[in-house]
Specification:
Elements: H1 10-31, E1 40-45, E2 48-53, H2 56-74, E3 78-87, E4 93-103, H3 118-134, E5 146-154, E6 175-184, E7 188-197
Antiparallel strand pairs: 1-2, 3-4, 3-5, 4-7, 6-7
Amino acid sequence: MSSTLTGITLKGSTELVAEFFSFGINSILYQRGVYPPESFTRVTQYDLSLHMTTDPQLKSYLSSVVAQLKEWLFDCTVQKIVIVLTCLETNEVLERWQFDIECDKTAKDSSCPREKSIKSIQKEIQSIFRQITATVTFLPVLETACAFDILIYTDKDLAVPEKWEESGPQMIGNSEEVRLRSFTTTIHKVSSMVAYKRTDSV
């Protein structure tokens, strides 16, 4: 007997969340001008026009990050992802995009799909991307050349792959925080926020 009920499985949830981060990291790098706009191409995803890098080095780096992230999402061992933007000259942290991930570990023991349509998950994701695009209206202009770092927080006892290194949290002193929307697949819940350096204007 075949079941016609479609739902979300751990594998499906992992794919959706990893895809969100692939587009999300690219969008942040594009919106915040970390790389020149001409090194991105426009793509349509979640019924939105988004930007993906065409820079071969960056592409290869991001796909290796997302591949590793996918493993940790599937194992339900990832807790949060932070994208840190720093001043290239001084190394000062200027912005910190934080995505907290809650994993329902019971999904590892049950192959039963959860009842949530991919369409409704993508709708929630779409509203986060609208917010990421809108952040340029309130985030301070980054007037300096920036570098970026991706920090991934995992369960404590996890072996760290060779290319990854331990890192400090890279917090911002004197920061403002803005909480963005969240989305859930019922297996993974992702909540987002951005912290930025306050510029005390008179």
